[in-house]
Write a structure and sequence with these properties.
Belongs to the adenosylhomocysteinase family. The protein is of the alpha/beta class. It is 40% helix and 13% strand. The protein has helices at 2-14, 31-34, 75-87, 90-99, 118-129, 146-154, 167-178, 194-202, 204-209, 218-229, 244-267, 283-294, 306-314, 322-325, 344-349, 405-409, 414-433, 448-458, 471-477, and strands at residues 109-114, 133-138, 158-160, 187-190, 212-215, 237-239, 275-279, 298-302, 318-319, 331-334, 354-358, 377-382, 385-389, 395-399, 443-445.
Length: 490
């Protein structure tokens, strides 16, 4: 029977053809919804010749049609993807087991806008197991794994998402999650701030009744601080992006592992002896530089901040201006979170077959629009790989049209996402259960105690054993034996 099983699996794979040819995305699409995060592991067909999911009548095996996904028939395949992700997200599963009995989210009605991938599915199902009801849309038009969305819909989650949504679909899905008869959200889980923005603008009465917002991206957090500054934030919000367990892990270690993956899958480039310039030496830049250096690349760093620049020098990297090295480098990687870091002038001066890509959150770091001019020829050579050809024959290799490289071209280590997801789950529990008045109408960081709890949940995977302070030592350091061990500003 083993063999038959395997044959079935093979069939399962051939059923989902991958489609490499993509229409060029020159049509304008709002920034946050296009910061692509698509998983290369997705076998789903993203062709646009079919009927839009919005036109289809689909029901799951329990007869519910409270969802909108590409194809509900892919649910079984998606369930396997979720089970694979669960293997590497043991902390989230152990939180699920620990808190299942007391249901800390009973009565919580969460409206969520995140990437719909196998990893976030583990988070969504954990929140449901803890007593929450949820409605979910995708925060990015490319990042949905269709088969995972199908598995969630089959399991009874109201999910509205598919890969390759249009701008109109994107907002329609968000609206379907918020605007429901007889169901009113009381918590928001957001990645990028689009959902918060939509509820704030379109449904102010719903917004006022929300008990808390949890936001995990730089962009979304920035929008929250703007609302707060203007005195328009009438609910407490938790900034998960700047919690230690997100910054120091998702940004540093995740990029250290995924930068090479994204570059190799798209270009098969050899790094030994290559000259690479990394723009920005924050957590993401540090991760990228460490990985490239380990493979024997010659790495330059550009930086505006003297502290980060000095760190780069101490780590053995030359700190330069981009214009000084642009003629000789083989690869340019942006990690600044800024805009126009690589300009048309830089692109004009690059040498033939230089690879250009972005590891920062938004697609503004490389001035891609300046390349859409009549004298330059664009050639799509692979999925997410464009050759931009100058009149003299010089070509520049542009990856993912300047969007997030690792999430557009490869995948992200599941374990790191487990850390971020556990942090999000705890932030939701904290805000939902906080007594009246503990959190005012402002943006908060996750309490250090919770950051430390998230970290401790992940230690068993490594069979790591913590040392405990003696009473005497704790007194000497002025700490509680059980933490928090770090000051609030860490």
């Amino acid at each position: 029977s083993q063999q038959i099983q395997f044959a079935d699996d093979m069939q399962e794979f051939t059923k989902f053809p991958t489609k490499t040819g993509r229409r060029s995305l020159s049509r304008s699409i709002s920034q946050s919804s296009t910061d692509s995060y698509s998983s290369a592991a997705s076998y789903t067909d993203s062709s646009d010749d079919e009927v839009s999911p919005r036109e289809k009548q689909q029901t799951n095996s329990k007869g519910s049609s409270n969802f909108c996904v590409k194809n509900i028939k892919q649910a079984e395949f998606g369930r396997r993807e979720i089970e694979i992700a669960e293997q590497d997200m043991s902390a989230l599963i152990s939180l699920r087991k620990r808190a299942q009995g007391e249901k800390p989210l009973a009565g919580a009605k969460i409206v969520g806008c995140t990437h719909i991938t196998a990893q976030t599915a583990v988070l969504i199902e954990t929140l449901c197991a803890l007593g929450a009801q949820g409605r979910w849309s995708a925060c990015n038009i490319y990042s949905t794994q269709n088969e995972v969305a199908a598995a969630l819909a089959e399991a009874g989650v109201a999910v509205f998402a598919w890969k390759g949504e249009s701008e109109d679909d994107f907002w329609w899905c968000i609206d379907r999650c918020v605007n429901v008869d007889g169901w009113q959200a009381n918590m928001i889980l957001d990645d990028g701030g689009d959902l918060t923005h939509w509820v704030y603008k379109k449904y102010p009465s719903v917004f006022k009744k929300i008990r808390g917002i949890v936001e995990e991206s730089v962009t979304g957090v920035h929008r929250l601080y703007q609302l707060s500054k203007a005195g328009k934030l009438c609910v407490p919000a938790m900034n998960v992006n700047d919690s230690v367990t997100k910054q120091k892990f998702d940004n540093l270690y995740c990029c250290r592992e995924s930068i090479l993956d994204g570059l190799k899958r798209t270009t098969d480039v050899m790094f030994g002896g290559k000259q690479v310039v990394v723009c920005g030496y924050g957590e993401v830049g540090k991760g990228c530089c460490a990985a490239l250096k380990a493979l024997g690349a010659i790495v330059y760093v550009t930086e505006i901040d003297p502290i980060c620049a000095l760190q780069a020098c101490m780590d053995g990297f030359r700190v330069v201006k981009l214009s000084e090295v642009i003629r000789q480098v083989d690869v340019v990687i942006t990690c600044t979170g800024n805009k126009n870091v690589v300009t048309r002038e830089h692109l004009d001066r690059m040498k033939n077959s230089c690879i250009v890509c972005n590891m920062g959150h938004s697609n503004t770091e490389i001035d891609v629009t300046s390349l859409r001019t009549p004298e330059l020829t664009w050639e799509r050579v692979r999925s997410q790989v464009d050759h931009v050809i100058w009149p003299d024959g010089k070509r520049v290799v542009l990856l993912a049209e300047g969007r997030l490289l690792n999430l557009s071209c490869s995948t992200v280590p599941t374990f790191v996402l487990s850390i971020t997801a556990t942090t999000q789950a705890l932030a939701l529990i904290e805000l939902y259960n906080a007594p009246e008045g503990r959190y005012k109408q402002d943006v908060y960081l996750l309490p250090k105690k919770m950051d430390e709890y998230v970290a401790s949940l992940h230690l068993p995977s490594f069979d790591a054993h913590l040392t405990e302070l003696t009473d005497d030592q704790a007194k000497y350091l002025g700490l509680n034996k059980n933490g928090p061990f770090k000051p609030n500003y860490y």
